[in-house]
């Protein structure tokens, strides 16, 4: 093979790589220890992770807000059906958070770090109700858990909202494990069920 043939082959290989696309790598935005927030600009997704657990969200002005997947330290990522993880009841009607058909308009996403904790905030306005809603996600270094909540601000006159929920999740059938909370336990009342491990086999529906 002469040098002209080698040059032609090299150009052909470069062109083939260009035509087959490029590998997208998530960009790290903020980090504190094992807690981090990254984004994939091409997929319009954001991931908040800590100690092997990762929650990936679709945050795109042109599409509905969605929870895409959840990965635990001991399992493969679980697709979560592409739905929001909460809803807001305004005027007696339950509205999926970040749904464009429900009237939500994307305003922006912000990240921050406070000590060992990273936080992701995504904000939508609901113009028909003159309401601003911000969904918050926090993760702390060393803990494979997330904290999530929603804050609200009126854009004018007071707004009545109801049936607030912290987190709504659809998962595949299987065994669900969780820990109870205080269960009414305090200094004067002891509950054997407080902070005990529970499990339940989830069936269809």
Characterize the structure shown.
The protein is mainly β. The chain has one helix and 15 strands, in the order αβββββββββββββββ. Strands 1-2-3-4-5-6 form a six-stranded antiparallel β-sheet, with no helix packed on it. Strand 3 and strand 4 (53-58) form a beta hairpin. It starts with a helix and ends with a strand. 19% of the residues are buried.
The share of residues in helices is under 10%
Q: What form results from the Cα inertia axes?
A: globular
Strand content: over 45%
**Average residue pLDDT:** 82
Structural class comes to mainly beta
Largest beta-sheet characterization: 6 strands, antiparallel
The strands making up the biggest β-sheet line up spatially as: 1-2-3-4-5-6
Q: DSSP helix count?
A: 1
- Sketch the topology as an H/E string, one letter per element: HEEEEEEEEEEEEEEE
Low-pLDDT sequence parts: 2-23
Number of strands: 15
Summary tags:
single chain, 205 residues, mainly beta, six-stranded antiparallel sheet, 47% strand
Quick overview of this protein structure:
This protein has 205 residues and is mainly beta.
Furnish the topology, listing elements before pairings.
Layout (H helix, E strand, L loop, with lengths): L2 H17 L7 E6 L2 E6 L4 E6 L2 E6 L7 E6 L6 E6 L3 E4 L2 E4 L8 E10 L2 E10 L4 E10 L6 E8 L6 E2 L11 E6 L17 E6 L3
Antiparallel strand pairs: 1-2, 2-3, 3-4, 4-5, 5-6, 7-8, 7-13, 9-10, 10-11, 11-12, 14-15
């Amino acid at each position: 093979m002469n040098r002209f043939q080698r040059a032609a082959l090299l150009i052909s290989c470069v062109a083939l790589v260009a035509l087959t696309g490029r590998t997208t790598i998530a960009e790290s935005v903020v980090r504190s220890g094992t807690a981090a927030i990254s984004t994939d600009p091409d997929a319009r997704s954001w991931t908040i992770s800590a100690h092997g657990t990762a929650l990936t969200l679709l945050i795109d002005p042109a599409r509905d807000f969605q929870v895409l997947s959840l990965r635990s330290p001991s399992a493969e990522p679980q697709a979560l059906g592409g739905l929001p993880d909460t809803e807001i009841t305004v005027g007696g009607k339950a509205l999926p958070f970040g749904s464009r058909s429900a009237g939500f308009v994307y305003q922006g996403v912000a990240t921050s770090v406070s000590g060992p904790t990273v936080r992701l905030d995504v904000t939508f306005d609901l113009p028909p109700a003159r309401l601003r809603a911000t969904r918050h996600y926090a993760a702390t270094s060393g803990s494979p858990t997330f904290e999530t909540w929603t804050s609200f601000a009126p854009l004018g006159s007071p707004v009545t909202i109801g049936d607030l929920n912290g987190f709504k999740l659809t998962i595949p059938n299987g065994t669900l494990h969780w820990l109870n909370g205080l269960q009414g336990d305090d200094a004067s009342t002891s509950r054997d069920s407080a902070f005990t491990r529970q499990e339940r086999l989830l069936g269809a529906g």
